[in-house]
Amino acid sequence: MISILFVGGSGNWAEKHYYSALYRLRADSVEFKISVICDIVNPEAEDPTLYAVGRDNLRCFLSEDRPEWLRFDRDKPSTTIMSLDELHAKYNFGLVIISCDPNWHFFYSTWAIKKGINTVCEKPPLLTNCPGSNQESALTLARSFDELNRLVDGAKKNNPSYLFHIPLKNRRLRPFCYVSTNLQNVYERTGQGITHVNLTVNNGLHRFNTEFLNEGAHGYLDGIGSLAHSSYHYIDLIAWFVLSARADISSLRISVPYVMRIRDYVSSAGYSSLGSVLGCKDDSCCFLPENVLSAELDFSISIALCDSNHNLIGNIAYHSNHMSFSSRTLGLDSNVMEPGNHKDGGKMKQVLLDVHQGAMQNFILIRNHDNNDKKSFALTHRCHPAIGESVSELVFDDDLYIKGSSTEDLLRLFLTGGHRQMDCRLTQILSAWREDQLTHRIFAACYELISRQSSGGIGYGESLEIFLD
Fold first, then answer.
1. Cβ(299)–Cβ(256) below 8 Å
2. How far apart are CA 197 and CA 194, in angstroms?
3. Which of 54, 133, 258, 428 has its CA 20 to 30 A from that of 444?
């Protein structure tokens, strides 16, 4: 029986994405035990402000497995390491799931990898305080990722079947898989690589001043802004598409021409119109510390695609907007930790994706609904007449995820040692370490550029070049 250490196992993400999948696996006679939950919050706590999605699945595991609670002490991480060593000696963990504050992903991952324990770690694989305003903090992202790579390589050398995985949901979504597959097919047929990508993501995550002081995985108290939130998934999408039809692309020249920080939003009273129509009490006098004010909110990333002679091949533009349209009707409520998770929080799912592969084909994908609506993607696929059907109109609204690639399928693999035949797409996802590395290199480069801009305009117009292996 596999023994599980669940880091961050008291949280909403654990309840919504992991416990439900684990419960279905238990019903299917997969044997495991959640032996330890490591979290700042006691899993037995009943504070309703902590559990926007409920906690029915967690209650079941608390009753059936009776896991120990290891309280993480931010001020004494060495004490946590000693406790983890003792608990591992007691339970012999076979799987570590890491779904905690991203600032501590690297801390727990390195411990698990050194112990040779198979690990599932949420994105991003590592993070530091204030990466958008502190250059040394931003530079640490790349250095620490190199160390993570070395540790994973060492674990695989000692045990060829060792697994370390970062779940990146876009690689499992059928509309994005459709684009990637067709990019690769046309590249193999014609040699034409990807040339242009325009990606805009509007989140509609308006906050009032005091809400920037809330804790949580998507909070700002550690000086970590929106680039480290859902944007990691979209940077991964860009990396995936580039490597699906790389052709002559030798390097990516990255710049960040636009950064709106929380300071800008507060100074321009960006919250005032929403507060007015909702009749909310004015909280403009709320004090926000410098690390919060310096965190990025909205931003644009530009990537020039270059060949080995530094000739331009094409370009990629990514725009991430939190301060976009929102259907929020939720007022200022101190009992709500993360407004975007609330049914009336107004979080939007607006994605506009435009991909060109030279003259050979083009994809235009639109997603436009709020967080409560049924998920749906509309895709227009245009091909050159010599390549295929001129125009295809597709709608993806049922079974959005590729068969065999769900969280349940992933955990089944980790818990059964691969005894069941693995779906082809899951095999690709688990072996996509090359794309993982490019994703993080782009992510780290963007933070380096954003941090350079934090001191009065220094760094604007600069670029960093990433060379592909």
1. yes
2. 8
3. 428
> How many other β-carbons are positioned within 10 Å of the β-carbon of residue 17?
17
Q: Are residues 58 and 195 in the same domain?
A: no
Identify the CA nearest to 281 among candidates 344, 214, 206, 209.
209
Phi-psi region of 168 (alpha: psi -120 to 50; beta: other; left: phi over 0): beta
Tell me: do 130 and 187 sit in the same domain. Answer: no
The reply to whether 120 and 240 lie within a common domain is: no
Residue 283: what pLDDT? 81
Tell me which amino acid residue 450 is: I
User: Which residue(s) pair with 431 in the sheet?
Assistant: none
Identify the DSSP state of 227: G
Cα 396 off chain centre by? 22
Do residue 83 and residue 198 come from a single domain? no
Summarize pLDDT for 159-209 with one digit per residue, the tens.
988 999 999 889 999 999 999 999 999 999 999 999 999 999 999 998 999
**How far, in Å, CA of 240 to CA of 285, rounded?**
44
E runs forming strands in 176-295: 196-202, 251-261
pLDDT greater than 60 at residue 418: no
Same domain, 369 and 449: yes
